[in-house]
Amino acid sequence: MTACAIETTAEDDDRDGEHPARGVRPAEFTTGLTITANGAYAARLAGDGDALYVERWTLDGPEPYAVPLPLDQPEEPGTQLLPLADGRVLVARRVDGRRNTFSLLYPTGPATGELRLGAVEAPGSEQLVLLPPSPDGICAYALCVGPDTTTLWLVAGGAFGPEQVAEVKGRCAGGVWLDRTGRMLALDRRLDDGPVKAVAVDLERGGEVTPLLQITEDSNDRLLLADPDSGLLLIRSDAPSPGHDRLGWGVLGSLLPVRFPECLRLDDAAVTPFAVQPGQVLMPETCAVALRIDAAGGSWVGTWQPMARRMGQLAAPVGWLAGAGLWTAGGVLRLPYATAGAPCGLADVAAPPEPEPGPEQVAAAVAVAVDPADEEPRVCRPVPLQQAPLTDGKPAG
Questions:
Q1: pLDDT for position 135
Q2: What order of strands is seen across the sheet that includes strand 326-327?
Q3: pLDDT (0 to 100) of residue 75
Q4: Among 13, 159, 155, 163, which residue's Cα sits nearest to residue 84?
Q5: Highest mean pLDDT among 29-38, 204-213, 349-358, 387-396
Q6: Side-chain half-sphere of 352: how many Cα atoms within 13 Å?
Q7: Average pLDDT over every residue of 171-178
Q8: Residue percentage of the chain with pLDDT more than 70
Q9: d(CA 189, CA 223)
Q10: Across residues 265-273, what is the average pLDDT?
């Protein structure tokens, strides 16, 4: 069994109240950037006004560079993009208010090649949303959210075009990959009028659904990010402050409680994690986390480690594609930006120095465990708050 409990301690009460980038905003003409799981490619909609086109970025070379992928017709502002590990870009377009078409774009010399994959119907008020890039870099998935049921579609990487791979009861959102193979997917699900709870979906078992987060019976518990190397989880929940979401962290596969550091709560700004340092095997407390900070004065960047008592804050590069970025295993944060003079750039920021160790800060949510006998993942049942250890954060006994 696993435990998912709340813990806040006095050691976390130090806040960094300075806002070094107050008033700095991303360039107005830029749009969001989606980066592949391996950090090699990215894609965004570029252009102005009605003249929008797909732009692919290459990030793993000596210098980043962008390749425009325009077609005869401009893209609509609502077009969704997903880069693949082979350099192609998946494009999802809404047609006639209900039909979603999918194509793969790729450069072919001076022109743009387009491979049409098929379509998925989303009638009425149903919405289709692309999930984050799969860890395998080949497959692409989308959620079609209805009033009572959510269907999961494989829209690229299959043999015969888009195919339905799972049906999940309830209305789902989010989407976080829990492993490096693209098998286990976490979704934030709401059943009827109940609270939002993260669940795990096993794509190799026909979409088998297992509870993943349950901090309290009535709390809204969402999973924002997961790092399979270290097991670090970033969670948003209103369990510690009913009616007000807090940012917390836990460890995949541990029995210790989720913590909600006070340093991650700013009174006048929203804090959202967007990247976790990879390669920190079994060392979640030392993982560097990048956070997007949004306030009335603009957006800037936060950096933090679970074992730290403070969150560092720094100015974002001019033209930052806010909320986009990736860590290298060596602890360098790479922030993409686009300006008139530098339409494709990466600004490197070193990870914060390792802080002085404080009290035990390794915490946990719920586990996706592997039985060595059959190597089949099984998702462990979460323990409600009233059954979880509520001591000083150290294991009981």
A1: 95
A2: 326-327, 332-337, 345-350
A3: 96
A4: 155
A5: 204-213
A6: 24
A7: 96
A8: 80
A9: 11
A10: 95
pLDDT of residue 291: 97
How many angstroms separate the CA atoms of 346 and 341, rounded?
Answer: 13
Of 311, 314, 350, 316, the closest CA to residue 335 belongs to 316
Of 171-185, 352-366, 375-389, give the lowest mean pLDDT range: 375-389
* Cα(352)–Cα(50) distance, integer angstroms: 41
| Structure confidence at residue 252 as a pLDDT band (50, 70, 90) | confident
Distance, in Å, from the CA atom of 128 to the CA atom of 80, rounded to the nearest integer, reads 10
pLDDT at 352: 59
The total number of residues written for the chain in this structure? 397
Cα three-residue angle 245-249-253, rounded to 5 degrees: 130
Query: Could you give the dihedral angle defined by the CA atoms of residues 130, 44, 273 and 198, in that order, rounded to the nearest 10 degrees?
Result: 0
pLDDT at 370 over 70: no
C-alpha dihedral over 147, 117, 138, 87, to 10 degrees?
Answer: -120
Give me the mean pLDDT over the 348-366 stretch: 51
- In Å, the largest CA–CA distance within the chain is 68
Dist. CA 54–CA 81, nearest whole Å: 8
Tokens of 13: 């009460």
Give residue 67's Cα distance to chain centre: 25
Strand 382-383, strand 332-337: pairing? unpaired
- Among 369, 387, 367, 87, which Cα is nearest to 217's? 387
The tokens describing 259, both together, are 């913590």
Burial grade of 109 (CB within 10 A; 0-12, 13-18, 19 or more): exposed
